[in-house]
Amino acid sequence: MSEKKSVGIVKTETWTFARPPERLKLRCGEELGPIDVAYETYGELNEEGDNAILICHALTGDAHVAGKNSPEDRKPGWWDLMVGPGKPIDTKTYFVICSNCLGGCQGTTGPASINPETNEPYGLDFPMVTVEDMVKVQHALVTRHLGVKKLLSVIGGSFGGMQVLQWAIDYPQMITSALPIASSARLSAQAIAFDEVGRQSIYSDPNWNDGDYYDSEPPHRGLAVARMVGHITYLSDRSMREKFGRSLQDRKTVGYDFGPPDFQVESYLRYQGDSFVRRFDANSYLYMTKAMDYFDLSENHGSLIEAFEFVDSSFLVLSFTGDWLFPTYQSQDIVRALHANAVPASFCEIESDYGHDVFLLDHPALNRTISGFLSQVYTTVGESDAS
Amino acid sequence: MSEKKSVGIVKTETWTFARPPERLKLRCGEELGPIDVAYETYGELNEEGDNAILICHALTGDAHVAGKNSPEDRKPGWWDLMVGPGKPIDTKTYFVICSNCLGGCQGTTGPASINPETNEPYGLDFPMVTVEDMVKVQHALVTRHLGVKKLLSVIGGSFGGMQVLQWAIDYPQMITSALPIASSARLSAQAIAFDEVGRQSIYSDPNWNDGDYYDSEPPHRGLAVARMVGHITYLSDRSMREKFGRSLQDRKTVGYDFGPPDFQVESYLRYQGDSFVRRFDANSYLYMTKAMDYFDLSENHGSLIEAFEFVDSSFLVLSFTGDWLFPTYQSQDIVRALHANAVPASFCEIESDYGHDVFLLDHPALNRTISGFLSQVYTTVGESDAS
Predict the structure, then answer these.
(1) B354: contact with A, CB 8 A cutoff
(2) Span B180-194, mean pLDDT?
(3) What is the pLDDT at residue A371?
(4) d(CA A366, CA B92)
(5) Residue B184 and residue A99: Cα distance in Å, rounded?
(6) B184 vs A: CB within 8 A
(7) Confidence tier at B193 by pLDDT (50, 70, 90)
(8) Rounded CA Rg of chain B
(9) What does the pLDDT read at residue A299?
């Protein structure tokens, strides 16, 4: 195995499209433009142009997948374990792309961006964006700006996996393979319920002010509670038991008060909430969770089997045993519908009791499975190029 | 099987104790008094005084278990399916008691009650109360006020089951049998985390005002969000899928906005939140969740086995397959520790994928198991009385 290295220092770039008179037509019926797209790339596109991989980020992710944006950064990008020289998505071999989703708040146009019609932030005047719209923007970036004609693979976990499925449906000729991880063709009622709790928590914060808070105190308390509840759903009973159990936080006995946290798990959650509000916009949280709730390939196409009718990529569908937010049965539904269309689709349920977020951890079986699948797809592409 | 009837119209009674100079010593070190205890009883105490059953309510329950308080009531008490003439806890045979927990808000002294030292509601001056304290109050009611010398059984689900365990430990000679349902000897990290989310949601509501809101608008929005997240944990992925799935609420397509709920599950949650705030006090929610978080028989006694050392009751421990808030392994921990002390303890995991709240539903296996256990215990008591 070659040495694993970081991609080093990378810069988040911005590409702007849908400038007047062009505008992007959205699924909700509205139009939007201009649109900034924040993205990063790692590695080099080869001469054949057949080594490009698009990574789609999860609900609150961003374009910064790997490396650091500056030497002072405390942490590398969100999937640095997976992407880099010698890593499972090996940037010595592949040209890796990731962009911030439409509606996000980390460089791509979203509700916090300036509405050119008012010169004020959009707030709730931002149109509702769907996974289809996000994928349309990614497609524009990849083809028009980066000049990639075909993607070797589109990969993403959770909400990112939904984007992967959408890519396979909307641009079947453009992607050789698809790798949705811990994902779903439609969000469950329970997951919608948790999203709704997060949104209600934001709505309930008087600072939210119907989304109009960019000149005042943002609704940090509501957003922090939304993040806390989300965070519990990314972990599992077992991972929380093993990580925290009932250990107390800097104290020998419980406090019998409502002051500092009694338990480590409370302190951890408060920290997660507090750090999240420093990097995320509450309105973006509303838009992204709505896009996730609305995603439903069966509804949009009649049935999941019909949704995959024109798919022309090979699939690797991954799930985790301990994931209760996007349970394995949802990945199996995807695989069954692909097989009904004779789409080559492998399915692997990876043993892990650590919940939904496992795809972000260093999991040897996950690493091997992803790197093996990509090698195989890349070899096949090379052979068909040569033939 | 005899006909199932309602207990009819019942009145919630109040008994007051710990009047000056008496005060109740609490586990936190503080003292409290006077204490009102709201309670209801159904059926008659028999001459032998051996047919009394105490029911302990769950986190947000109250003393009103069965029947209606007035003919106009839309709904009967919270366990009307279980308690009544001909029902599993048959009031033709048993004398059934239930009281509102200390710290509650449905008639028993809690943070919304008047603090005699200030003539204002306690608010956060109310001392932290624990399951031990709640059980102490129940014991006072049962022995001093109702004149019951020994309880045939103490029964409760969830937080009520914690009270059952505490009864068996603190008053081993006073209870013939114990029936904890979907309960735990100590709350899991995940459940503490959900409780903390609920509390943070209340703290975040500016109307909460550090618990001082009895003369102003109460923190209804924060409390509603707390209830919503709690409610999800009482159900299950499957029950929510079967009950709501992705059905839309009074509309044919999603709204692409942040207005009325898109999905039925969202509408249901909003309704749960809204109706809860009409009957529950936010401060009580804080105190009750803290009491639940703090409950830890292992911590309080060295180990769970030591906790049960002097237990002298027969046990029936029940859990549900689909309960992820108080999972079966927690009931099994209780049973193992009881068996290590040679306590007669039966364990039954009831098949149901409907989550934690199953004990409140009409579940034939649950009904049979409870009525059978009680009959057997009652017969044994009768035989030993006769001998």
Answers:
(1) no
(2) 98
(3) 98
(4) 61
(5) 46
(6) no
(7) very high
(8) 21
(9) 87
Q: Residues A150-170: pLDDT tens digits?
A: 999 999 999 999 999 999 999
Distance CA A310, CA B247 (A): 27
Using CB atoms within 10 A of its CB, is residue B71 exposed (0-12), middle (13-18) or buried (19+)?
Answer: exposed
Per-residue pLDDT tens for B75-109? Answer: 999 999 999 999 999 999 999 999 999 999 999 99
**Cβ–Cβ gap B240/A193 under 8 Å:** yes
pLDDT tens figures, B40-81: 999 999 999 999 999 999 999 999 999 999 999 999 999 999
Decide if the complex's ipTM is over 0.90.
yes
Domain residues of chain B, as ranges? 13-185+299-386, 192-288
- Inter-chain contact A261–B203, Cβ cutoff 8 Å? no
- Is residue A256 less than 8 Å (CB to CB) from chain B? yes
Q: How many residues does chain A have?
A: 387
Low-confidence ranges of chain A (pLDDT < 50): 1
Instruction: Give me the active site residues of B, please.
Output: 158, 323, 356
Q: SS3 for B9? A: strand
Asked if A180 reaches chain B (Cβ–Cβ under 8 Å), the answer is no
What is the second-level CATH architecture of the domain A192-288? Orthogonal Bundle (1.10)
Nearest to B99 by CA among B62, B151, B144: B62
The DSSP line for A57-88 is --TT--S--SSBSSTT-SS--TTTTTEETTSS
Spatial separation of the C-alpha atoms in residues A65 and B302, rounded to whole Å: 47
**Residue A174 to chain B, least CA–CA distance (Å):** 29
Q: Which of B334, B343, B312, B13 is nearest to B150 (CA)?
A: B312
Say yes or no to pLDDT of B386 above 90: no
Among candidate residues A199, A190, A165, the one with its CA nearest the CA of residue A338 = A165
- Listed by number, the residues of chain A in 205-244 with a beta carbon closer than 8 Å to a beta carbon of chain B are 205-206, 211, 221-222, 224-225, 228-229, 232, 235-237, 240-241, 243-244
If one looks up domain B13-185+299-386 in CATH, what number appears? 3.40.50.1820
Class for the domain spanning A13-186+297-386:
alpha beta
